[in-house]
Amino acid sequence: MLAPERRSRADLVVAAGIALAVLVAFTVVWLRSDARNTISVTAAAPPPALATAQAVPQTLSPAWESPSSATTAPLSAGSAVVTAEGGDVVGHDAVSGAELWRYHRNLALCGVTAAWEKIVAVYRDDRGCSQVTELDGGTGRRLAERTSDADPEVTVKSDGTYVSSLGDSRLELWRSDLVRTVEYGRVDAPVNPGKQPRSGCELVDADSSSSRLSVLERCPGEVADRLTVMNPSPKDNQEPEEYGSSVLAGIDAGVEGARILGVSGETTSVYLPEGRINGPRIGWFDGTGNALSEYVLPVQVSSDQATETSGSVVTWWTGTDVVTLGASDLAPRWTFPGALGPGAVMAGNLLVPVDSGIAVLDLSSGALVRTIPVARDSESGPITTTVAGEIVLEQHGDRVVALS
Question: What's this model's pTM, rounded to 2 decimal places?
Answer without folding.
Answer: 0.90
